[in-house]
């Protein structure tokens, strides 16, 4: 077929095409998609902590107003918000590390036959993980600061009259 077409068309046999396909799968540059995915993960993690604390403040508004009405200082009321944020942050970090490690090990095991030679160990993106942790802590600090302002401006009487 090659001789009949005089080089106008590329003709490969099954073995040549399989080698080209396998080599092209491992040489695709995914850095742009990875950057978008990392940015999304950072924004999602920080946003989740902000949302958690906003919802917690809204949900416990009556409880906080009751505490304020019986004379509990604002810093002690805010300690509840801080403690909840700290517990959720610690639990999320432990869960994220465990799930990330399990998923990474599973992917390496599944894709080991694709790479020649297979990887010796996992590559850990420390810079991304530090940025992710920083974004989550920053989101938590912003949310708790917003909660403190909300507690300071809370109309105790009006909240207690709500049903």
Number of strands: 0
Rg over alpha carbons = 27 Å
- Mean pLDDT, as a whole number? 83
Task: Report how far apart the termini are.
Answer: 83 Å
Shape assignment: elongated
Task: Specify the biggest β-sheet.
Answer: none
The helical percent reads over 70%
Query: So how many helices?
Result: 7
Q: Assembly type of the shown chains? A: single chain
Structural class: mainly alpha
Percentage of residues in strands: under 5%
**Which H/E pattern describes the elements?**
HHHHHHH
Poorly predicted regions? none
Write structural notes for this entry.
The protein is mainly alpha-helical. It is built from seven helices and no strands. It has helices spanning 2-5, 14-26, 31-59, 61-69, 74-111, 126-153, 156-161. The longest helix has 38 residues, at 74-111. The protein is elongated and about 95 Å long. The protein starts with a helix and ends with a helix.
Protein topology:
Elements: H1 2-5, H2 14-26, H3 31-59, H4 61-69, H5 74-111, H6 126-153, H7 156-161
Brief summary of the model shown:
By secondary structure, the chain is mainly alpha-helical. The protein contains seven helices and no strands. Helix 3 runs parallel beside helix 6 and helix 5 runs antiparallel to helix 6.
């Amino acid at each position: 077929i090659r001789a009949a077409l005089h080089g106008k068309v590329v003709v490969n046999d099954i073995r040549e095409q399989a080698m080209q396909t396998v080599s092209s799968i491992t040489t695709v540059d995914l850095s742009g998609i990875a950057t978008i995915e990392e940015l999304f993960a950072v924004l999602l993690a920080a946003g989740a902590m902000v949302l958690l604390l906003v919802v917690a403040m809204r949900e416990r508004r009556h409880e906080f107003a009751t505490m304020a009405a019986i004379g509990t200082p604002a810093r002690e009321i805010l300690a509840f918000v801080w403690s909840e944020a700290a517990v959720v942050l610690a639990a999320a970090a432990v869960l994220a590390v465990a799930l990330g490690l399990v998923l990474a090990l599973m992917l390496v095991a599944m894709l080991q036959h694709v790479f020649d030679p297979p990887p010796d160990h996992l590559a850990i993106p420390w810079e991304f993980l530090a940025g992710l942790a920083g974004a989550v802590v920053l989101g938590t600090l912003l949310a708790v600061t917003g909660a403190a302002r909300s507690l300071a401006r809370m109309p105790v009487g009006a909240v207690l009259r709500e049903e």
